[in-house]
Amino acid sequence: MKSREQEYKEIFIAEALEYYDALNRHISTLEKQPDDDQTLAEVFRLLHNLKANSKAIGYLHISDVSHKLETAFSLIRSKELAFSDEVVTVLFDGVDLLGELITNIDNNEETEPDPVLLRNLDIIVENLSESTIELAKVQKYNTTKALSLSDLVYIQIKKLDHMMNLVGELMIDRDRILSISKGTDNDELKSVSSHLYRITEDLQYSVMDARLVNIGSLFNKFPRIVRDIAAAEKKEVDLKLSGQDIQIDRNILQIMTDSLLHLVRNAVTHGLELPGEREKKGKPRTGQLRLSAQSDRENVLIELSDDGNGMDIKQIKRTAVERQLVTAEAAKGLADEEALTFLFEPGFSTAKEVTEYSGRGVGLDVVKNAVDSIGGRLTVHSEKGRGTTFTMLLPTSIAVKGALLFEVDEIFYAIPLIHTEQVVALDKDEIHEVGDVMVASLKGETVTVVYLHELLNADETDMRLGDKSRLKGQVQNIVVVSYNNRKLGLIVDKLYRQQDIVVKPLSKPLDRIDLYGGVTLLGTGKVCLVLDVPATTRYFIYKRQG
């Protein structure tokens, strides 16, 4: 993986070379149309940006030459300097020097600018005397200079999206061909299909890699944001960033930008206390805010932690009961992690509640929906008086998902691995009926389980989701999924394998069925429904409440 500095340098070089080409074009235009104010303004803008960018990244020679050229064009715009042939020659040479400095950045020894050229530029921008013309004549243009192009290109995201869709189609046909080849004695077909599999896999990862960006491109915007919010709130906040080198799909980062901004703003505004209040609690005056990213297999884990007020779990339960989201009796038995899931209900926390966590829930449903839309997971952990942590588990790619394949009632299904906690086989006797549901003990934790066939086919008059007698056979295959701090065991008929799938949206009017996130085609040519875990979990809760 590239370092952050290397990626920034590559981006700078690619952009600087574009500026260099544009400057050459614009100066040629100005030779013919010296009074073209729009072109003059564009040249000035390009030089100003190049000066600022090169100074920020530490290339001071480039910054110095850009500054001299910027000053010269400023004088030309203000009519203090005539755009004469002699001046044009010096300016062209100055732009050529910029090109040389940019293309030689990777050399161990930094290229020194030509002192005669720098002297001419200084005369142009400082003396404005007749000596300008005399000195300009000593410039020598190298006819032996080679033309060069950048090793980097900019490409529109929509073009990469299109490529990813084509790769997805190719993967579906690849799996089909591989399946056909396994059922024949044709060695040549088997060899070609095996090679096709490897090539397609390489192509898939190449396209996915081209879409990756460093998460620092988003994280590095937050120090200024936090500073501004903290100043407005009269709070002292120390923001710690880590994991800026972690890479993620650019589209996913774009979708999550507003959500992360919302969480950061909430943390500073509602999570962290005022300096005086923190001192009374024995805390440092300065609140700590930590934004981190790390790789987790095929996913990226983003965490936002503060050491502020934390959530008042008792108040959350009271509000949930008041809003009829849960009965008073059921609320008493809720674990803290489960109670926190109410924060993601639409408009759960409003300014009307004068509580310590007032405002922390506003808009969290929007954040949750954004995470769900890309197949990610959002969880929250909090301790009253000690702080809150929001954790987002995001896929590195949207188009291709790792999934678990299984069968229920002779229908093929897939569940994205990002929502899959574990897969277990239990004896029927290890599953117990408690009230209106079935439960099982998994790794010391009591988890509610449901036969997926019954859940998907239950009608309004048949709510017996906890009827153990309906289970087939003695051994039960259970896929444990997790959503919104809740775990649910889905009993399925047959388990198959894990594989990467390309999810296709359902056609109208089937796209209205919330339980399915789309479909994919298996190598056998059979259609496989992709289960939407958030929707399935919500549907189960709705069915329980009857």
Explain the layout of strands and helices:
Blueprint: H1 4-32, H2 37-57, H3 60-77, H4 85-103, H5 115-127, H6 131-136, H7 157-182, H8 187-210, E1 212-214, H9 216-219, H10 222-233, E2 237-242, E3 247-249, H11 250-271, H12 275-280, E4 287-296, E5 299-306, H13 313-322, H14 328-332, H15 336-340, H16 364-373, E6 377-383, E7 387-395, E8 400-408, E9 411-416, E10 420-427, E11 431-434, E12 437-442, E13 445-451, H17 452-457, E14 475-483, E15 486-492, E16 494-502, E17 516-521, E18 527-531, H18 533-545
Helix pairs in contact: 1-2, 1-4, 2-3, 3-4, 3-5, 4-5, 7-8, 10-11, 11-16
Q: Can you walk through the features of this model?
A:
Helix 7 runs antiparallel to helix 8. The two termini are 51 Å apart. The protein folds into 4 domains: 4-136, HPT domain (Four Helix Bundle (Hemerythrin (Met), subunit A), Up-down Bundle); 157-210, Histidine kinase  CheA-like, homodimeric domain (Helix Hairpins, Orthogonal Bundle), CATH 1.10.287; 214-395, Histidine kinase-like ATPase, C-terminal domain (Heat Shock Protein 90); 400-545, CheA-289, Domain 4 (OB fold (Dihydrolipoamide Acetyltransferase, E2P), Beta Barrel), CATH 2.40.50.180. The protein is built from 18 helices and 18 strands. It is an alpha+beta fold and 546 residues long. Strands 10-14-15-13-12-11 form a 6-stranded mixed sheet.
